[in-house]
């Protein structure tokens, strides 16, 4: 397996709107991020992934871009960006930008031109079609409720938008459009940025003819644009034209990607991307009705899914490792216990992820164990996906309480409440009223409290990050699941040369006994990290685990 700095790195995702507000307008900004670089340095991360900071009317908080080469007014200016980049580099921290090129804002000049007439040179930059019998060109549903097509009376045609109607899809079949995107990417890379996280990048190639999806009413058309016919060709072109000329880190967000496809996207000989964000583990608590149709997740499925990705990509591609981000609920509320065992379970989940093979991503506030939030009324929510879904289900006659229950479990604003810096007003996020209310638990869960507590979740993350720097085994070692059928324990090993680590995780509040499998032969056991204090002389062939206990042992293979 080839070594690479991006395999050895730990990435920290910043959602700028919610990170740190420096000017009191209630919205996080670039100067706020600059003022917290020391914090990130202390945590020990190597790369920041910045969710979009480009000019945007904010229909989807920056994922609707109206100018790729300028900064959103609320976040600051290009000068602020240059300063952020310079200061981060001074601290040895790299910056990875979000690249949102499946769609733009409808306020992007390309779209303004495109919709102006059928013969405008930019008409073909987007996907325009005639209606069918006074209805949309096909039956696809948008990710944010309602049809994926919007009628434009001016030219009597519809345009495709897989997300909101203010996010028209770009037409990647058009070579001129692709060239403009590559020019824009080079402009950022020449400025010195260190990589791209590519938003729904496996949606850019649509099946010719845009066929109807099976079923009545509006239907998910993913099979006609996820991993579409020209996707590898487009990514290889992008790699040839842009990526291959720089030393950078790339990750493609890819709903609906399988491990076999991920090998094609990330294989070393393929010249496409370094890694992908897959979603299989994020779908474990969704029923047939999709993300809002909540079902309990099972540890058995969780282990099988994580293991499948670990094993399938080993030596063939590269994994990204994440348990939450700005689109997902907080991991401690979802897979851990955000009540009695908050601290223990946050550390246990972090151990689970950070000891695996792949590049770990930490989402802002995760390192403090920030939790989901349960606002009592829809008026406190800001996310377009949540608000549209609420309206649609209420219209269909569902009980408010039932809909709010889904929102509390799965809504994206769970992850977007302002970062909890301290226990002062607005959690120390900023002086103005925050754009989204703070989570009331900031009084006890906040960075200032955790800095002063050596046993805090923050300091535990610091140690996990340091271990990855100390042991190349943690980066490159092979993974093996053990005790596959244990209902409460997730345990796995990693092996590299003559070394091995054993990761033991109790996923629940019970007290199961870990019994070492006979075929694990070891010498010189050393405890690398744990979330409880451990007696060094304990016989580790049989360990009575405490609620949500996590331990990592290092052995020499005997
Ligand atoms: C995925 C992003 O992570 C999400 O926040 C956004 O709404 C959609 N793509 C559309 O850009």
Automatic annotation (TrEMBL):
Presence of the UniProt keyword ATP-binding in the record: no
- Report if keyword Hydrolase is assigned: yes
> Which keywords belong to this entry?
Glycosidase, Hydrolase
For this protein, what reaction is catalysed? Hydrolysis of (1->6)-alpha-D-glucosidic linkages in some oligosaccharides produced from starch and glycogen by alpha-amylase, and in isomaltose
Q: Which Gene3D superfamilies match?
A: Glycosidases, Golgi alpha-mannosidase II, Oligo-1,6-glucosidase, Domain 2
Spell out the SUPFAM superfamilies in the cross-references: (Trans)glycosidases, Glycosyl hydrolase domain
What range(s) does the Glycosyl hydrolase family 13 catalytic domain occupy? 13-416
Identify which top EC class this enzyme belongs to. Answer: hydrolase
Q: What is its EC number?
A: 3.2.1.10
Family membership: Belongs to the glycosyl hydrolase 13 family.
Q: What is this protein called?
A: oligo-1,6-glucosidase
